[in-house]
Design a protein that fits this description.
By secondary structure, this protein is of the alpha/beta class. About 45% of the residues lie in helices and about 15% in strands.
Length: about 575
């Protein structure tokens, strides 16, 4: 493996880090994968045995640099910190495996699609061994093109295939118990308001698709330019010249349509929101929330701020996730104080806390109190945080006689996408980590939620983490065309409109009351109704391209037909 390819893969990893908060150099996302793709192109003429190993390593290097730089804050999480550096390394490598898989399959696809385009081409005079090494395979025609002949350009497949593959892998990276969509490429564009409007049709993966598609076509055009410099033919037809720019033109058209749609949608003013809300950001130390010795401290802070917010006449007062960690709703003293406060502020009180049932199962809950102090409904968090709310591999930690979660009781995941009905409207909740998963907001809105409320605890983390986490919220708003409220214990707390614009926010790590207006919305988007259809389309694209290449190879005798085996 050449040092050049290693450098290119490391460069891609570094560029990817810079796309995300706090750097926010989001424009780099459009070229961040170009170095890696160029390195993978250069492997397309390598023997299949070396190809798979080398491409896997290049992708792994890119992934380790990217996720290692993006997720360095894992080291400082309180419940992980005893294992800080190992946990950070393991998570970074695990996430990097997805990028390694992308590189392996993409490189293998490039090598398959670099076979001759026709039997006549195969029978033509072939360049010498030295020439083939000098002219790396760029397309279906140039790996074994005859002397004096212009090599064919890469097909549309070589431009579109990496984008289809990326979104499928990115989608499955965020699914299941171990799903972790942090660092999905689309989140780098959360401030690119016109672009992210397509999320109401395709979900967030449509944005990732466009980003990778641009990276792919830039790589392709660089290779075309380099090839022209090496192979100048007086017999080259104008149609061949024009065809080399066709992928660029098609993708430019896709971008123009996407941005034009976003600008057009964004130009439609939203009706003036009528519901006034107050978000309480108490900025209380997380350790005190868990301490029985300070059982009243956090509650007193949020009560004081809520009474202060009452003077602004909000119709909802919203607290963050589990601000009172020492008790649950079966605790008579806690329930008494919350009901009394709801009656004092004379408005709906929404908050996160723990709850339990008769089977002694514990839940991370969101609860809504009426102005009369009655509980209108509860939502139990469905997607729990591994090693944070539920601890896998307990037997292993017991075996090594080291368990930083000693005494910690696993929470139980909720089973319903509960929508809480109030006289103001239907409220849907995401609790902290759940906001990274599009399907939870979508299912809540499908069941009638007119407003999405995200209750968050970010006091576990560094400041950069809360910015990274906040960058995911605009997508949940656009995907479902709902107002979204983010209530975080240490910030950033914010209100996001259905276009994904952060219309009001607080700075992190300050005590603050955020007031603003939201509205209730009824319309369901295509994404809300039909979900991840774009992933299914991408899978069909992958299958189509692989089938086309396989059939082409069979015709050329590179793979024997099934009836001859």
């Amino acid at each position: 493996m050449s040092y050049k390819n290693i450098f290119l893969s490391l460069l891609s990893g570094l560029l990817l880090i810079l796309c995300f908060p706090q750097f926010n150099l989001s424009f780099l996302a459009w070229i961040a994968l170009v170095p890696l793709l160029l390195a993978l192109y250069s492997l397309s003429s390598t023997s299949s045995k070396d190809l798979l190993g080398k491409s896997f390593i290049l992708g792994l290097l890119t992934g380790v640099v990217f996720y290692g730089g993006l997720l360095y804050w894992v080291i400082s999480i309180r419940r992980v910190s005893p294992l800080g550096i190992p946990a950070w390394l393991l998570l970074s490598v695990f996430q990097a495996l997805y990028l390694a898989l992308f590189s392996l399959i993409t490189s293998f696809f490039y090598s398959l699609s670099s076979f001759p385009a026709s039997a006549e081409r195969r029978s033509a005079d072939r360049p010498s061994r030295e020439d083939r090494q000098t002219l790396p395979s760029l397309s279906a025609g140039n790996a074994q093109a005859g002397k004096g002949q212009a090599a064919e350009m890469p097909s549309f497949a070589q431009v579109f295939f990496p984008a289809f593959l990326w979104v499928v892998i990115e989608y499955y990276r965020g699914r299941g118990f171990w799903g972790f969509p942090w660092g999905s490429l689309c989140y780098s564009q959360y401030l690119n308001i016109p672009l992210i409007q397509i999320s109401e049709w395709t979900g967030m993966e449509g944005v990732s698709f466009l980003i990778v598609l641009v990276n792919s076509v830039v790589s392709y055009q660089l290779l075309v330019i380099g090839r022209k410099e090496r192979q100048r033919s007086p017999h080259r037809r104008p149609t061949e010249e024009a065809r080399s720019y066709l992928p660029l033109g098609v993708i430019a058209l896709l971008l123009i349509v996407s941005f034009a749609y976003g600008i057009l949608i964004k130009s439609n003013p939203l009706p003036s929101p009528k519901i006034k809300v107050a978000v309480i950001q108490g900025n209380t130390p997380r350790d005190l929330a868990w301490s029985a010795n300070y059982r009243d401290y956090t509650l007193d802070v949020y009560q004081r701020l809520s009474l202060k917010a009452k003077k602004k006449n909000p119709q909802m007062i919203i607290w963050p996730e589990s601000v009172i960690a020492w008790g649950d709703l079966r605790d008579f003293y806690l329930l008494y104080r919350l009901r009394k406060l709801a009656r004092e502020v004379k408005t709906h009180l929404l908050l996160g806390c723990f709850d339990s049932n008769e089977r002694k199962e514990d839940f991370n809950a969101a609860v809504v109190f009426s102005p009369q102090g009655e509980i209108l409904g509860k939502y139990y968090k469905m997607h729990l945080v591994p090693f944070g709310e539920v601890v896998p591999f307990k037997g292993f930690f017991k075996l090594i006689n080291y368990n930083p979660w000693e005494g910690w009781k696993d929470l139980t995941p909720g089973q319903e996408y509960s929508v809480i009905k109030t006289n103001l409207g239907n409220l849907g909740f995401n609790i902290c980590y759940e906001t990274t998963f599009p399907y939870i907001s979508r299912q809540t809105v499908r069941r009638g939620a007119q407003l999405i409320i995200g209750l968050v605890t970010d006091s576990w983390y560094r400041k950069v983490t809360t910015y990274q986490h906040t960058s995911m919220f605009p997508f949940r708003a656009v995907e479902n065309r709902r107002y979204l409220i983010r209530a975080a214990d240490t910030g950033v707390s914010c209100i996001i409109d259905p276009y994904g614009r952060i219309i009001k926010k607080t700075p992190p790590f300050v005590e603050k009351i955020l007031t603003g207006y939201v509205d209730l919305r009824e319309r369901k988007t295509l994404y809300t109704k039909y979900g991840d259809w774009f992933i299914f389309l991408s899978l069909l694209g992958i299958i189509f391209y692989l089938t086309s290449i396989t059939c082409s190879l069979i015709k050329r005798g590179k793979i024997p037909p099934l009836d001859s085996i």
